[in-house]
Amino acid sequence: MEQTPKASAMPLRIALILLPTPQFNLSTVEPSVLANYQTLQPELISLLKADAAADMINITISDDSDTNNFESQLNAATEAINNGYMVKLATATHALLMLPALKAAQMRIHPHAQLAAMQQVRQVDVNAQPFQPGSHALNQALDHALKQAKRSLSDVSLNESFEALNSEQQFTAVYSLIQRLASRTHVRNAVELGPKQAKSHYWFSEFHQNRVAAINFVNGPQTTSYVLTQGSGLLAPKSMLNSQRLMFVLQGNNQQQIAASITQLKQQLDSVQVTDADELYLEQQQVLLGIMHDNLIDAAKLIDSDNNSAYHAVIQASSVNAAKQELAALNHALPSLFAERADTSLTNQGLIQYKTPAGSYLTLTPLGSSNGHSQAGLAFVYPGVGTVYADMLNELHQYFPALYAKLEREGDLKSMLQAEHIYHLDAKHAANMSLGDLAIAGVGSSYLLTQLLTDEFNVKPNFALGYSMGEASMWASLGVWQNPHALISKTQTDPLFTSAISGKLTAVRQAWQLNDADAEIQWNSFVVRSDAAPIEALLEDYPHAYLAIIQGDTCVIAGCETQCKALLAALGKRGIAANRVTAMHTQPAMQEHQNVMDFYLQPLKAELPREIGFISAADLNAKQTVSEQALSSQVVAQSIADTFCQTLDFTALVHHAQHQGAKLFVEIGADRQNCTLIDKIAKQDGANEPQRQPCCTVPMNAKGSQDITSVIKAIGQLVSHQVPLSLQPFIDGLKREQASCQLKLANDTTAAASNEHHILREEV
Question: Distance from first CA to last CA of the chain, Å, rounded?
C-alpha cells in the first residue's frame, strides 16, 4: 500500500536564483566585478546589500542524519519563505537563493526558474516492489505535484527521474535543471548519441509556451516529485573569447608598424606564466584576459574613429603558446605580402591575404570599407535548399541568449529551424527532410545568422543576393517582408512544395503530358564538372533532361533519371547524383510561375532597407539593384518566381553582383557551399580575366566546425577587411570572464581562510 500526501491547493510560486559561489559575500567583492558577473542583476545586488539580508536564512545541504535530508531541508526552506524570509541553500560547490515569486516581481528581479510544486509519496508496504521509473507510485507523486502546480503532464517538456541519490546529489541535480532552464539548453542522453552528434542544443518550446520540467527522486520507500517552470531571467551569454579561445587585433599603416605591433603583443604574452602543460592558473588567466580586453578596447576605438589604420591583422589561437606561434608565422610572412602590395608591374592587383587554420588573418586589400580609392562592397549571400544539416547551430544560443529570446517572441522558432528534424536523435533524419522542410530550415538558419550579424555585431551589408531559394531567404532576413513567419505553415502545406515541383511532380507530369495511368517519374539531379555549352548542345536529344544550374566549373542537370544518365554518357562525363526530387530551375517549373508569385506575394514593411542593393538572378542585365527601383510586393514576388522557374546561372549572378560593386561575399546560412563556388569562380576569373576586380568570401558557418569558432573567424576576417562593426560582444564577454575569475579567486581565498581558521581552532 502507499501513503500519499494531500495535494496542496495552491502552487508554491517560489523564485529560484543561481548564486555565483557558495561563499558569495557582497562585502568581499568589488562593485565592478558584481556589475559584470553573469548571474547578478542590479536589483538582486540591491536586495542582498540591503537590510533585508538580515531576513536571510542559510541552509547547508548535508546528509548528517536521516531527518536532515534534502526533502526536509527544502520543506524547511519553503516554510521559512512562507513566513517572509529569503533562504540560501548551499553545498560546497553550489548555492541557490529562494524567495517568494511575488516579492521578486515587485523588486523587478528576474528569477532563473520557479518552484511550482513539491510532493512526496511514501510506500509503507515492506513487501511491495521498489519504485521504478514509470511505476504507479512514481506517477502518483508526479500527479500530485502537477495538480499542485496547476499543470498537466502534456505541459511537461522534460521529466527526469533519479534513484538512490544522497542529499547533495539531489540538490546538484535540481541546480543543474535550473541552469538548463535559465540557459534554455536541452541536454541529450549521451548513450543514444554517435561520436559526432551534439551533446546539447537549444531547448525549443511550442510557440508562446513556457518550459515546464519535472524532476523525481526515489529513495527507498519514498518518492519526491518537483515541478519547475522557466523564469524570466536568462543566464548571461557565455564569453566567445576566453583563455582557450584567444583573439587580438594588430593595426598599422605599413609593414614596420604591423611588425612593431607583433613585437609588442609578444612581449605582453611573455609576461603570462604558462605551465609545462600550456595551461594557466587563475591569476595568469586574469592577466591574459586583461591583455585581450585592453587590446580589443583599443581596436574598437580605432575602428570607430576617423583615424583608422590602413591594415588590421587579427590573431586567433587556442593558447598563449599557440598565439606566439601565430605571431611568429605572421611576422615571417609580412615581407612577401608587402612586396606583392608594392609590385607596380601588376596593373590590377588581386586579393592579397594571409590566413591560417587557427583563424589568424591579414589582408592588404581590404574590401569592406569606404575610402578615397574604393566604395564598400560587402555582400550578404544566401544559400539555397539543401545546405542545412543535423545539429547545425546547436550551441549559438549559449553565446547569444538575448537574440534567441527575441526570435522566440517574434515567431515559432521551433518550426522556423525545423527543430524536430534538425535535432532528431537519428542524425540521418535531417538528410531525408522534404523539400518544404528543407526550405523552411534553410530560411530559418539564414534569418538567425542575419540577425546575429546585424543586431549583435552591427554589420550592415551594402548588397545582398541569393543562390536559388536563397533569394527568398534574402527578402525574409533583411527586413523587407512584414511577417516572414507566415510562410512557414504555407511551405509545409502548399501544393507548390508538396506535389507540384516535388513529390508527385504534378507540374512535370503536366508539362510532359502524362496522365494518371502513366508510371511515376523517376527524377534525379546530377552535378557534373563541365561548362554549360557542351551540355546545352545535347539537350535537344534529351527533351526530359534540363540544364538547371550553372555554377563555376560545374553544372547541375536535372530531370528524368534515365535521360540524365544518357546525356552524361554522351557528354563523356561522370555525374554525382543528388538523389533529391525538385524541378526548380527547369522548364516544367514554368507551369507554376503564377503560383510561385502568389505564394511569395507578401506585404512589405512600412520602413524598407533602402541602403541595401538587392541583386536578383532574375535579371542579370539590370543596370540597377532591385532596391534602387521601387520596392513592392509585386516586384519581390516577380523576382523570386522568375529565379525559381528558369535556369540559375550562379556564375553570371556573381559577376553581375561584382559589376554592381560587390567584392566581399559573406555567406549567411548553414555550411559554406556558396563560398566554395564563389572561390572557384574567382579562381577561373583570375586565370581568364586578370583585370577583374578582386573578391573574397567569408563563411559564417561550416559543417564539421564548432559554430562559435566559425563566427569568430568570420568576424576576424571582416575586421581585417575594415567592415564597420562592433567588437562589444567580445569585450562584454571578456568582462564577464574576468569577473568570474575574480570571484573564483575570492572564493578560493575565503575557503582557504576558513580552512586555516578551522586548523587553528583544532590546534587550540
Answer: 55
